[in-house]
Amino acid sequence: MNTAMRWRVASAFISAAGLLLVVVTVAGCFGGTSQRMGSVDGYVFKPIGRVAASDQLGLKVGPRGPRGTPPTGYEPCAGAVVSVTGSTGVAQTDANGYFRKDGVSPGTQTVSIAYEPFRLETRVLVRSGLVTTVNQTTGSLLGKWTIMVYMCADNNLEAAGIADINELEEVGSTSDVNILVQIDRAAGYDRSNEDWTTTRRYYITRDPSVPGSLEYGTIVSPMAPWGGNDTEVNMADPAELHDFVAWCMANYPAQHYVLVLWNHGDGWTIWRAPRVVPRAICVDDESGRAMDVDQIRIALKGLPRLDIIGFDACLMQMAEVAYEVRGIADIAVGSEEVEPEGGWDYSRAFAGLCANPYATSAWDLAKSIVNTYMESYGPGSGFTQSALRLEHSDDVAMAVKALKDELVHWIVQNADGTDAAHIREAIRSARLASREYYYGTSYFDLKDFAGRLGARIADPASGVSREAREAICARADAVSEALSGPSLYAGGNGDGLSIYLPDRETWAGVHGYDCLQFEQYTRWSDVFQYVDP
After folding, report:
1. Which fold has domain 144-377?
2. Rounded mean pLDDT, 76-95
3. Which CATH number fits domain 26-141: 2.60.40.10, 3.90.190.20, 1.20.58.100, 3.40.50.1010?
4. How far, in Å, are 55, 322, 393 from residue 326 at the CA level?
5. Least packed by Cβ within 10 Å: which of 66, 109, 150, 280?
6. What is the pLDDT of residues 158-174, one digit of tens each?
7. CA-CA distance, 303 to 242, in Å (whole number)?
8. What is the pLDDT of residue 9?
9. Rounded to whole angstroms, how far apart are CA atoms 66 and 70?
């Protein structure tokens, strides 16, 4: 993108009716006088029949009963998130409610357990080379939401990053909504706020100053208690993204998580193959690197599932990208088209959530982001924004695969006949007539393309045989139907998802598409060789 566009534990809870019990057990032995790392483990249980959202929920942590059974009246808590000071990352309980956190520094450490609306903290003495399970303690309700903004502003978007932090400060964190930002700044684009050029984490608090006032524009939020503040971080490194999200979840656990990747964006494009300029997302000028889409999935794999992954960046709302991140989040929000430098309208997008977090669902919030984005640029702007329930990306991929299979079947079967020539012409003409985003990317609105292809094939004047017409049109209609349901909410000049569709000459010079899970499942590229320029 140019300067005008963004390619933009054992422990316990206690309530009025329940107790979480933790028992310490020790295993292992000392070896010589050298100090070795220790471990913390345990089981987490909840009362049978209790719903997690009830404030009467009690948890029990400790050893299992005879023959591995839970204590009487309790059942395992699967998916509880456990963090321990003196170690990195988080652990999760398995289907039996068991967790183990290795690599913990010896000494007194704090163990935190988060399970749905509850959290617990307790201190334990970790010994070198031993495994420790925690003693009984009490806990409290979790916060409702944690919003994490990974702001890669070590590039020409630096000024936009400062502006968006100020937009977030217009709403600020509340007792039920934690807003955290990691921002890496550049040199030479914006000299405000003491012109530091390193990386910081902020806990966003409300700034009462209003846009247009002399005070507005200064970051008032305190830096979060992170030891890496004012160091230089390569934000294109997947390990840094993992560290940020894991740290936020460990220190600000919540019932719902939102992650926003803020930066330039270039859709599916894989950067690891040689290219002239860095693309993909999370461009970091200091390192000269960017993060590839498949690396986002790798960075977040193993962490608690996100409610929303947002891409405040250009061109990211693609079938390929959605399929890649479907296992790490429930909903994806992003743009098919390039975004203006201002990106999302953060103050308006999150205002409703902060005002009423218990009445706002993840889907409500996703639609709010779409609506406020489109409203901020006005009707007829040509911009796009959409929200997709990622479980539906499997249905989209299945429909695309079926369409590809049908097209390739009829072209190959009739390679020397009229069907092949007429089908190729229908693909070419439908592609040229479809909405393309940021001309030259070969990113086309998927529903628009499927509809135009079906219409051309269905026309008896197309020259395609009746049997081929019926088969291909059915598959094209299925793609359109997959993009028409309640799982996709789109605004602006688009139907919600784009797809990569280069002609065969462009495709000959492209690298990395086969790294994507979408391509590995659909083999969508099989059709590219039949797309005439």
Report:
1. Rossmann fold (3.40.50)
2. 89
3. 2.60.40.10
4. 31, 6, 7
5. 66
6. 999 999 999 999 999 99
7. 8
8. 27
9. 8
